[in-house]
C-alpha cells in the first residue's frame, strides 16, 4: 500500500496500483495523535506520531511542545549545560552553533571565528580567533588572526596580515589593510588608517578619520572627537580633548591636552614635531617645532 491524500485532505493508505510495494502492508499505529507530523518505522512497517507538532490555526511548528508560539518553537529536555535545545553542524561535523538547555549559546567555526551580519567575515579562509558583528564587518578578513570588529563596515577591508586589531563603531578601522595592534572606538575612528600599527583612537573620527586620504602613522593615541582627525603619516603623537591636534598631518612626537590644543579645525600646526600644548586652544596657531604651551 501507499500513502495518498483524500478529498478531505487526510492522509490515507490505498493499494499500490503497480503492485510493486514489496514491503507488505503498512499500518497506522493506534496511538497516532492529531496535528503531529507522521513518521514511518521501517522495522515494524508502521506509521505513527513523531515529536513534531503543527498548530492547525497558526501553522507554527513545535518540537517538544504542543503550544508553539513561533514559526519554530523548540523546547529542550531540561536546564542543563550538557543538553541542547538546538545544535547546528556542517557536513564535516564541526559545531557551528549550540544552544544549551541552560541558555548558554556557543557559536563559531572550527578556527574559533564568529561572524554576525550581512557580509561579515565573508572572505575568511584560514584566519583564527576573529569576532565580527555588523554588516560587512571584517568582510575582507582572510588569514587574519585575533581581530574584533563591531559596527557597520568596521574593519571591512582588512586583508592578509592585519592582526590583533579592535574596531568598535560605524566604519571604525574601515580602510585598515595590514595594520596591526590598533584600537579604535567610535564612529569613523581610525577609518582611514591602512598600514599603521599600535594606534589607539577613542572618539568620533579620531586619528585620520577626517582626512580624505589614507593614514599610515604608527603609535599615535587620541581621545576626543576628531582628535588628530587629519593625521596621515605622523608618528608617536598624543592628543586628548575634542579637536586636539586636529589639523596635524605629518608631524610626530607632539602632545596636546585640551580642546583644540595645538590646532583648531581650520587653523594650526600641520607638520610640526616635538611640541607640547596643555590647555584649551593652547598653541592653536603654532606652526613650529619644539615648543611648549601651557594654558
Structural notes for this entry:
Strand 8 and strand 9 form a beta hairpin. The chain has no helices and 21 strands. The chain is mainly β. It has an eleven-stranded parallel sheet with strand order 11-12-13-14-15-16-17-18-19-20-21, with no helix packed on it. Strands 3, 4, 5, 6 and 7 form a five-stranded mixed sheet that branches.
Number of strands: 21
In oligomeric terms, what are we looking at?
Answer: single chain
Helix content: under 10%
Instruction: Please report which band the strand proportion falls in: under 5%, 5-15%, 15-25%, 25-35%, 35-45% or over 45%.
Output: 25-35%
Question: What is the topological layout?
Answer:
Blueprint: E1 2-5, E2 11-14, E3 27-28, E4 36-41, E5 46-54, E6 61-63, E7 72-74, E8 84-89, E9 95-100, E10 105-107, E11 114-116, E12 131-133, E13 148-150, E14 166-168, E15 183-185, E16 200-202, E17 221-223, E18 238-240, E19 255-257, E20 276-278, E21 292-294
Parallel strand pairs: 3-5, 6-7, 11-12, 12-13, 13-14, 14-15, 15-16, 16-17, 17-18, 18-19, 19-20, 20-21
Antiparallel strand pairs: 1-2, 4-5, 5-6, 8-9, 9-10
Amino acid at each position: 500500500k501507499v500513502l495518498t491524500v483524500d478529498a478531505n485532505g487526510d492522509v490515507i493508505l490505498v493499494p499500490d496500483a503497480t503492485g510493486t510495494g514489496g514491503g507488505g502492508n503498512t499500518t497506522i499505529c493506534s496511538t497516532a495523535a492529531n496535528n503531529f507530523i507522521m513518521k514511518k518505522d521501517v522495522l515494524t512497517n508502521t506509521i505513527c506520531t513523531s515529536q513534531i507538532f503543527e498548530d492547525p490555526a497558526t501553522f507554527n511548528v513545535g518540537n517538544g511542545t504542543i503550544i508553539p508560539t513561533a514559526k519554530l518553537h523548540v523546547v529542550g529536555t531540561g536546564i542543563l549545560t550538557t543538553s541542547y535545545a538546538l545544535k547546528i553542524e556542517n557536513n564535516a561535523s564541526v559545531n557551528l552553533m549550540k544552544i544549551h538547555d541552560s541558555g548558554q549559546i556557543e557559536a563559531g567555526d572550527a578556527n574559533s571565528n564568529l561572524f554576525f551580519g550581512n557580509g561579515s567575515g565573508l572572505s575568511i579562509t584560514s584566519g583564527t580567533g576573529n569576532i565580527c558583528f555588523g554588516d560587512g564587518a571584517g568582510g575582507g578578513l582572510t588569514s587574519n588572526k585575533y581581530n574584533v570588529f563591531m559596527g557597520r563596515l568596521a574593519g571591512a577591508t582588512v586583508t592578509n596580515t592585519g592582526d590583533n586589531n579592535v574596531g568598535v563603531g560605524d566604519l571604525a578601522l574601515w580602510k585598515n589593510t595590514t595594520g596591526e595592534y590598533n584600537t579604535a572606538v567610535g564612529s569613523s575612528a581610525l577609518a582611514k588608517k591602512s598600514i599603521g600599527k599600535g594606534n589607539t583612537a577613542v572618539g568620533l573620527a579620531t586619528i585620520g578619520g577626517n582626512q580624505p586620504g589614507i593614514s599610515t602613522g604608527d603609535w599615535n593615541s587620541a581621545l576626543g572627537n576628531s582628535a588628530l582627525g587629519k593625521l596621515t603619516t605622523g608618528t608617536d603623537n598624543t592628543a586628548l580633548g575634542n579637536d586636539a591636534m586636529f589639523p596635524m598631518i605629518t608631524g610626530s612626537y607632539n602632545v596636546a591636552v585640551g580642546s583644540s590644543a595645538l590646532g583648531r579645525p581650520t587653523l594650526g600646526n600641520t607638520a610640526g614635531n616635538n611640541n607640547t600644548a596643555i590647555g584649551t586652544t593652547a598653541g592653536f596657531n603654532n606652526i613650529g617645532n619644539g615648543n611648549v604651551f601651557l594654558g
